[in-house]
Amino acid sequence: MDATGLTIFALVYLGMLAGGVPGLLIDRTGIALLGAIALLATERVGVDEAWQAVDVETIALLFGLMIVSAQLRQGGFYGLVTRRLTLHQTSPERLLALVIVLAGALSAVLVNDIVCLAMTPVLIEVCARRKLDPVPFLLALACAANVGSAATLIGNPQNMLLGQRLGLSFAGYLLDASVPVLLGLGVVWLVIRALYGGRWNAAPLPDATKQARALQVRFDAWQSTKGLLVLGGIVLLFLFTELPRELVALTGAGILLVSRRTASRAQLALVDWHLLVLFIGLFVVNHAFSASGAAAAMVHEAAAVGLDLREPGWLFVVAATLSNLVSNVPAVMLLLPAATDPLAGPVLALSSTLAGNLIVVGSIANIIVLEQASRTGLEIDWRTHARVGVPVTLATLAIAGAWLWLLGA
Q1: Coil, strand, or helix at residue 271?
Q2: Which of 3, 26, 258, 326 is deepest in the core (most CB within 10 A)?
Q3: Angular region, 74: left φ>0, alpha ψ -120 to 50, beta rest
Q4: H, E, C per residue of 166-177
Q5: CA-CA distances (angstroms) from residue 296 to 115, 164, 303, 345, 395?
Q6: Can you give the pTM of this predicted structure?
């Protein structure tokens, strides 16, 4: 890659680090797209080459599962199970555990961003009814959604990418990740209980309750059942067949789009198009960097100074660090050329996902929970999040690192 190509690549990842461009209303998605356009405009990448650089299978898998999750969101399924589970008369500690288990379980098989989008307003309303402080429960939702999403290859976008690119076994990865994820959910409960134990109650928030109700979706039994049946079929096919996952997910999405009661426009409106565009832009940018030999040279130079990214230990540390600098999807894409060890898939998936709890911008799930809370008038700043996120991240990464070391020993 010449100086122009390297400059474009560097500017894209500096933008990923900054989260935008000073003075311009442009986010990471816009930066990735502009980077791809710049490579095309300067003829560093040809149009045909750019199309070939896009991993269509990963995009198709992500899109298909977004439709499935959108179906359950539209059917009000998330809100119903959250309300029924949390309205039981039980102690705050047990309620916290129920929220963590529910968020973790749903995020393992559905896109965790939509899980957080749907559960946040219900949790705020439930806490208001019971005169509980919603903050610890919302922080539990965000942390548990991140941890739970690490359990499978369909829990979050970076895991989907790794599963497709590295050809990981769905069942095999589930076995590798289950122990650190289950222990990680326990860590979330322990940390929040230690920080908020004895201080669960709060004054009623009438405005927040009203706004939270406005954000909720009415339950539709048929639409929810339809979505659950399709989701169950998809997971079973992932577990017990070798059918291409992207085709299974697209078929499930196609079944859900055929409806007499729900407009396809409404379902497609819930697809995270920004995330799909981010993937496409980064596929082109990273392809140009890799095709030039620069990626291989970077791995070689790092090994020369003792930081061999092909070693699982170093890959784990670098992935966790980089995920909090440029976000987990760009970090995983950048590190894929170094994923040559048999444990590289679980290493990248667990480290990049669990690292997302460290700071607010480390995960889209965190941002969604805090933004949804803000729309109801409940403000949670980054310091409040960090009091929970930092110890949760350090503990879960330590557990995952030790587990992966045992697997590789």
Answers
A1: coil
A2: 326
A3: alpha
A4: HCCCHHHHHHHH
A5: 38, 21, 11, 18, 32
A6: 0.87
